[in-house]
Design a protein that fits this description.
This is non-specific serine/threonine protein kinase. By secondary structure, this protein is of the alpha+beta class. It contains 6 helices and 35 strands. Strands 25, 26, 29, 30, 31, 32, 33, 34 and 35 form a 9-stranded mixed beta sheet that branches.
């Protein structure tokens, strides 16, 4: 009796197991309520165009996803994923099945990680999931039902297939998004997405679901106004549908045997691709935006995009790549190699003060701040005085500074008239000592470095020959080139002469910082009469009878200005050319 009971019990269990977990037949396009899919099992659409199953991505990894792929394309191409953000590790112990009226994916621990998640009153026994010839996975109530409970076309990943749609739901006020992969190997959601603006009947591409950087232009009944390629498109037919529930675009191929798709790529561009079986490759039909560097923040923070040469992305000087650049994911941008000195501007730290590196012909980053400044030197000083300032630009009497990350920076061609010069703030250790690298601006003086050097020569002549005149209240205008006809600001001349004298003092502690030099030149700080440097006295004595300047505007040399050796000689017989016309 006991043997009979046990046998009956085991038979009942086996009956229930096979009744509710029947294996899929080879080539089936349907999962019914008493079936499941796992391991190497697949669904194949009726015409054989598409296939659904467990696929690892990348192909050599242990991350598996429920995917729809082309069945007749020799190069494995994924067009849809169920669990793009939550991969499984074992496809043999994971299962896709119907549960409570929904299609559900259970992982290797039999925990649901993805579901169609529809509130359905339909009995599970009648629900089926069917893979269509158009690549659309449909969950519906029975084989003969024409009304889907759920369909994959309503939840696209990065691919838009013919017959699919990118819609705006008027009832839920939500948009369908075509979202890029994170990188060329990771299918999780990336930064770039395509969606529909129903009110203007146009598609837009967003960065990080917030910043719009491209638009198709409005739909005019035949094509999008800013996508002229569509006028010559003899491969697919677009149509716009607008009803009380939703608005959407859809398209179909004139030749239904043509295999084509739209992809929101990791490049931040929407592309149309067509399969060419003869060469076994996808052929690019068109892409938007046309230029890679038009994609917002494509190279990430402190990365610069160069449309002229490849690779498109490079880190700025003093920065190194962050993230998976080798997988075409530049969103991590670049990180600073050496920390900034930041705020320590005493003379003892002049050698370690932050400096600026010049980048000409740049498309400037976003989110600049406008600062009041009357010169490039003042603009540089404003940046140095703010520890959070990372760069500045001065043009058309405007001073712009950037706080924090530099984003959407572009290197333009030399003949692009919109380019500006950007001065990037770097640690002093990024520059070679004793070398004047191209584009380097030291300290806050910026473009005025050459002027300060010349001011040293001004002092040599002023002190020895015009002492009674370069401050004690004499005629400062006698220092000017006679061709200027004394057309200058006397107070500016006095500041220039005095700051030059202070910059070459014997005692380093008596010399002003670069920030102070800028403030003196701008009239923010007052400056007193300097002491006469001993080293300069020796220099002047050793250069007696040396000709410093000649007038090249006439046919013969002007009368030479001589430096006298005795300190008591303070008047000069002729006036030296201190400042000349540019």
């Amino acid at each position: 009796m006991g043997v009979r009971t046990n046998s009956y019990f085991i038979f009942s269990l086996l009956f229930l197991f096979f009744t509710f977990n029947l294996p899929l037949s080879h080539g089936s396009d349907t999962i019914s309520a008493n079936q499941s899919l796992s391991g190497d099992q697949t669904l194949v659409s009726a015409n054989g165009t598409f296939k659904l199953g467990f696929y690892n991505q990348p192909a050599n990894s242990s991350n598996y996803y429920i995917c729809i792929v082309y069945n007749k394309v020799s190069l494995r191409t994924i067009v849809w994923m169920a669990n793009r953000d939550t991969p499984i590790s074992d496809k043999y112990s994971s299962v896709l099945k119907i549960m409570d009226g929904n299609l559900v994916l259970l992982n290797e621990s039999q925990i649901p990680i993805w579901s169609t998640n529809q509130n359905s009153s339909t009995a599970s026994s009648s629900v089926v999931a069917v893979l269509g010839d158009d690549g659309n996975l449909v969950v519906k109530d029975g084989f003969n039902s024409t009304q889907p409970i759920w369909q994959s076309f309503d939840f696209p990943t990065n691919t838009w297939l013919p017959g699919g749609k990118i819609a705006y739901n008027k009832i839920t006020k939500t948009r369908q998004n075509l979202t890029s992969w994170k990188n060329s190997e990771d299918p999780s959601r990336g930064l770039f997405s395509l969606s529909l603006k129903a009110d203007t009947k146009e598609y837009v591409i967003l960065w990080n679901r917030s910043k719009q950087y491209w638009t198709s232009g409005s739909w005019n009944g035949q094509f999008f106004s800013l996508v002229p390629e569509m006028r010559l498109n003899d491969r697919c037919f677009f149509s716009f549908v607008d009803n009380e529930n939703e608005s959407y675009f859809t398209y179909s191929m004139y030749n239904p045997t043509t295999i084509s798709r739209f992809v929101m790529g990791v490049s931040g561009q929407i592309t149309q691709l067509t399969w060419l079986e003869t060469i076994g490759q996808w052929n690019l039909y068109w892409s938007q935006p046309r230029e890679q560097c038009e994609v917002y923040a494509f190279c990430g923070a402190f990365g610069t995009c160069n449309q002229i040469t490849q690779p498109f992305c490079n880190c700025l000087k003093g920065f190194s790549p962050v993230g998976d650049w080798n997988l075409s994911d530049y969103s991590g941008g670049c990180a600073r190699t050496n920390k900034l000195q930041c705020g320590n501007t005493s003379f003892a730290n002049q050698e370690s003060m932050d400096k600026f590196y010049e980048y000409p012909n740049m498309g400037l980053p976003d989110n600049s701040l406008s600062v009041a400044s009357s010169s490039a030197a003042g603009c540089a000083s404003s940046c140095l005085n703010n520890c959070s300032c990372t760069a500045y630009s001065y043009y058309s009497n405007r001073c712009l500074i950037w706080i924090g990350e530099l984003v959407n920076l572009q290197q333009l061609s030399p003949n692009d008239g919109t380019g500006r010069t950007l001065y990037l703030r770097l640690a002093a250790s990024e520059f070679s000592k004793g070398k004047e690298n191209k584009g380097i601006i030291i300290g806050a003086v910026a473009g005025s470095v050459a002027v300060v050097l010349l001011l040293g020569l001004v002092f040599i002549l002023i002190w020895k020959q015009q002492r009674s005149v370069v401050v004690e209240g004499g005629d400062l205008f006698s220092l000017l080139d006679h061709r200027l006809e004394k057309n200058a600001d006397e107070e500016e001349l006095r500041r220039i002469a005095r700051v030059a004298c202070w910059c070459i003092q014997d005692d380093e502690n008596h010399r002003p910082t670069m920030g102070q030099v800028v403030q003196i030149l701008e009239g923010v700080l007052e400056v007193n009469l300097p002491l006469f440097p001993r080293s300069l006295q020796v220099f002047v004595e050793n250069h007696e009878h040396r000709v410093f300047f000649t007038d090249s505007s006439s046919g013969q040399s002007s009368q030479p200005q001589r430096a006298h050796s005795t300190a008591s000689t303070r008047a000069s017989s002729t006036s030296s050319t201190m400042i000349s016309k540019s």
